[in-house]
Amino acid sequence: MNRINGFNRRIAEKITTFVSTMWCAYIFAAIALISLPAAIKTGNVVIIVAWIAQTFLQLVLLSIIMVGQKVSSASVEKMILETHEASLGEFELAKEARSIANQELAELKLLAAEIQRIVKDVESKK
To answer: What per-residue confidence (pLDDT) applies to 33?
Structure first.
């Protein structure tokens, strides 16, 4: 069963990859145009509208929408990656700032201890 699922997934990925190209949209448009003369020849408005809606638009727009989704997805993925990289940069800056703050705090503690020692020396000499 697992092999069948893997096979089905690979086939679906290949079909999706092909259908989501402009070349596929061109092929679908050419296929749809083959039946256009017969639809026009009927002179029936309903048949012509049905051909436009059910044949041409459904075939061609399917691929075009998928291409658009792929482009949009790539754009979103790029934005997410840039945001992630910027966040990592900010995190590194925050780590550096924290390290510097810890060093300064340690220095301040030493200074405070030195000041306390000096105050005690001054008070003991009184």
So the answer is: 93
